[in-house]
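Researcher: Next entry in the queue.
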Amino acid sequence: MSSADTPVTPTAFFNIFVTVFPTTGKEGETVYKTHFTPESIDVQQLDTVLNYQLISPTPEDIRIVEVTISPDGNEEFSTPSISRSGKLATFSDANLIDGTFGVTLHFSDKIGTKFKVDPQIINRPPA
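Model: Structure for this entry, 127 residues:
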């Protein structure tokens, strides 16, 4: 069988919908709460693409400004790419190391309020 005849496994793709809800804090300040759909990510295929997408009813002025992944220095994930609109953050997961990784999504609103959330990614490499 030549390499041209070798079947190619389609890349696994997680589109994670992120909804941000503004609420009022104890001192009248705006506090943001987030919800993820799906709530957790369980990666089971190699070279999986993860895409975090802000969706309605998230306020229009909320933007993803940075993505960090821990532990630092691992080579499991590609450098995250954030869309010009700040509504998408995309990166790939090699899924070579079994374990749980922290992803921190950093957000900002139109007046410069910054907040972050820390969803997790569970890697389960194929045998």
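Model: The radius of gyration is 17 Å.
Researcher: Noted, moving on.
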